[in-house]
Amino acid sequence: DSGVTQTPKHLITATGQRVTLRCSPRSGDLSVYWYQQSLDQGLQFLIQYYNGEERAKGNILERFSAQQFPDLHSELNLSSLELGDSALYFCASSPQIPDGPYNEQFFGPGTRLTVL
Amino acid sequence: GQNIDQPTEMTATEGAIVQINCTYQTSGFNGLFWYQQHAGEAPTFLSYNVLDGLEEKGRFSSFLSRSKGYSYLLLKELQMKDSASYLCAALNQAGTALIFGKGTTLSVSS
Q: Which residues of B touch A98 (CB under 8 A)?
């Protein structure tokens, strides 16, 4: 158990809908990262937040957005869902500021999203 | 551009040694990570190299050559539970993102 929690564990929805995935980082970790893992693409970095501020963006679609709240939990919002958005979505957290010397990320158990 | 290459699949037998190679090309570099991932589960950290050389941790070792953009993960005394996907990931210069390879699926048989 990494100490990172994600809810829900599974989510099934229809095309065109909007969903929210939630992540609570390990106690004390200020950085939160979101990743998408699909069968053909592997793990893709989406976005990072540090202490409430967006820090870096990866391959995140404009239909997706995220935020980190004052209590450091984060939410990933996916809208206008398409079949291709079906994937495992992982959240990770790390203890250090992003330009620290060692930035191990601890991954949550993931949310499996199925879009029908 | 950013590119991480590793073999798609490997097979080995219990008790054997296996080496999983990874080559990387990234714009800026701040270290190389190896993660293990069992199907449907979260990746778990195995090793981190930022300097050239070999890091040994029990049955697992990881090697890095920055000049060659090359790393490998060495697994000794293989056990059935080592059957998993092994992910090579490069941390970018800013430390803001892990760039993952697609993973190497290792199957260990008896």
A: 94-96
Mutate to test the interface with A, among B35, B46, B98, B105 (most CBs of A within 10 A): B98
Cα B110 to Cα A47: distance, rounded to the nearest angstrom? 41
For residues B104 and B36, what is the distance between their CA atoms, to the nearest angstrom? 10
Answer whether A80's CB lies under 8 Å from A115's CB: no
Yes or no, beta carbons of A48 and B30 under 8 Å apart: no
Q: Name the pairing type of β-strands B32-37 and B18-25.
A: unpaired
In sequence order, the 6+-apart residues with CB closer than 8 A to the CB of B98 are A33, A43, A45, A105, B33, B89, B90, B91, B92
The tens digit of pLDDT for each residue in A38-88 reads 987 789 999 999 999 998 898 899 999 999 999 999 999 999 999 999 999
Cβ atoms of A91 and A2 within 8 Å: the answer is no
Is B12:B19 a contact under the CB 8 Å cutoff? Answer: no
Parts of chain B with a pLDDT under 50 = none
φ/ψ region of A80 (left if φ > 0, alpha if ψ in -120 to 50, else beta) reads left
Q: What is the DSSP letter of B77?
A: S
